[in-house]
Amino acid sequence: MTAPTRRPGRRPGPTSSREDILAAARVLFGERGYDKASIRAIAREAGVDPALVHHFFGAKEELFAAAMEFPVDPGVFLPQVLSGPRSELGERLTRTFLRIWSDSRLRPQFIGILRSAATTEQGAALLREFITGTILARVAEALGTPRLNVTAAAAQMVGVVMLRYVLEVEPLASATEDELVALLAPTLQRYLGD
């Protein structure tokens, strides 16, 4: 007698499908990178139907954010940053970035992601793919700005974050948001163009 074949999709009874999908996503994103890890491949690895992946996580970027335990969805904050006068883009970007990082509920996850990226190749690959595929490419396309300029703006902000929130270097660590916006926004505006 042959064993019944399991059909993909929602498993009967209590299920670990969501966790299985996240585990499969972490493996495939780490091995293949963001662009080459498809929803279908992740579903296959987890032993579920691709529709279940969409049910739990929506789009691929949301799955990646969940797999990375990325505490904010770029699909929410990027439209806010990119809307409005182009001449105020540097200020909007700086304020948004600082507000996200200053949220004490989110900061531990962000710091964990940065530490993972600094200490493991898989963490670095996941964060690199997420930043380049989900954030930088979108911003460059939306603004019509060279990718190098957008990457330079991101590097500026990541450096500030490392010194302010991870290493807590003074006086950067205790500077007010307004002080940092006044200092950083013109530089980001120059990178991103008027």
UniProtKB/TrEMBL annotation:
<dbReference type="Pfam" id="PF00440">
    <property type="entry name" value="TetR_N"/>
</dbReference>
<dbReference type="InterPro" id="IPR041678">
    <property type="entry name" value="TetR_C_16"/>
</dbReference>
<keyword id="KW-0238">DNA-binding</keyword>
<feature type="domain" description="HTH tetR-type">
    <location>
        <begin position="15"/>
        <end position="75"/>
    </location>
</feature>
<dbReference type="InterPro" id="IPR001647">
    <property type="entry name" value="HTH_TetR"/>
</dbReference>
<feature type="DNA-binding region" description="H-T-H motif">
    <location>
        <begin position="38"/>
        <end position="57"/>
    </location>
</feature>
<protein>
    <submittedName>
        <fullName>TetR family transcriptional regulator</fullName>
    </submittedName>
</protein>
<dbReference type="InterPro" id="IPR009057">
    <property type="entry name" value="Homeodomain-like_sf"/>
</dbReference>
<dbReference type="InterPro" id="IPR050109">
    <property type="entry name" value="HTH-type_TetR-like_transc_reg"/>
</dbReference>
<dbReference type="InterPro" id="IPR036271">
    <property type="entry name" value="Tet_transcr_reg_TetR-rel_C_sf"/>
</dbReference>
<dbReference type="Pfam" id="PF17920">
    <property type="entry name" value="TetR_C_16"/>
</dbReference>
